[in-house]
Amino acid sequence: MRLFLLTALTMIAFAANSVLNRMALAGGGIDAISFGVIRLLAGALALAVLCLVLRGRLHLGGPGRLAGVVSLLVYLYGFSTAYRGLDAGLGALILFGVVQITMFAGGLIKAEPMPLRRWIGAALAFAGLVWLLWPGAGPKVSVMHGLLMALAGVGWGVYSLAGRLSRDGLMGTAANFILATPVGLLVGLMLPAGPTGVMIGAQGVVLAILSGAVTSGMGYALWYSVLPRLASSVAAVSQLTVPVIAMAGGMVFLGEALTWQFALASTLVLGGVAISVGRSKA
């Protein structure tokens, strides 16, 4: 039960990142690259302080570190720039659909057991997401922004697979953020700010700091702490709840309407996840 609750809390943090990012770019007066840079800096600072207070030290080494740093940067900048042209729910679908594929592939490469119920549950959950985000003809998707979010999905999938090697979730996440920061600053300077140019408004900065320090930094540390106890495929399927939570957050914070498609498709997604991660009877 404790593992389930920690995983659920982590999924809420992931969904909050989509909502915060979209809120900032839509009305926070900040450009995508500046949002990503501030998010990275805030996460690194918050995690460094937490490590010094709770662990009394900082350790930047450890297994999977290079993969964690590179994939974190790919995810952060792909995620931020993709939300220039995608809404929160659609972006989350693309992101975690690709994450599921990446992590399932990682599990197959490592020859993890893949019971039939896990495949069935994953298929049901993904079908629910497609129904939820493509009612009728579905929205038009910018190819460029869709590919950027797919790239972010590969980055997050690799980041999650690397996290399964971590012995200390907090220290491992802090090391990834701290080591990624100087490279991330250089990348941020080289990437184009977008059609509106560089914008750094107060509301956007606050949202970026909240996303970096709380829903990213602390959320990812929590994720790294539970990943070693989850099979790659289970971790992948559990993340399919994030688009549903993100859309619910949009209804609460962005005034989006509750629809019957959302209620029924959410039931399908959560039911599929329950089937996939449930234990087989002995």
Low-confidence stretches: none
Q: How large a portion of the residues is in β-strands, by DSSP E? A: under 5%
In terms of structural class, how would the helical and strand content be classed?
mainly alpha
What is the makeup of the main sheet? none
Please work out how many helical segments DSSP would assign. Answer: 11
Overall shape: it is globular
Question: What does this molecule look like?
Answer:
- This is EamA-like transporter family protein.
- Keywords: Membrane, Transmembrane, Transmembrane helix.
- It is found in: Membrane.
- The chain has 282 residues and is mostly helical.
- It has one domain.
- It has eleven helices and no strands.
- The longest helix has 26 residues.
- The two termini are 19 Å apart.
In short:
The protein has helices at 2-27, 32-54, 65-82, 88-109, 116-133, 143-163, 169-190, 202-226, 232-238, 242-253, 260-277. The protein has 282 residues and is an all-alpha fold.
Features:
282 residues; globular; mainly alpha; 11 helices; 75% helix; membrane
Architecture blueprint of SSEs:
Elements: H1 2-27, H2 32-54, H3 65-82, H4 88-109, H5 116-133, H6 143-163, H7 169-190, H8 202-226, H9 232-238, H10 242-253, H11 260-277
Helix pairs in contact: 1-4, 1-8, 1-10, 2-3, 2-7, 2-8, 3-6, 3-7, 4-5, 4-6, 4-9, 4-10, 5-11, 7-8
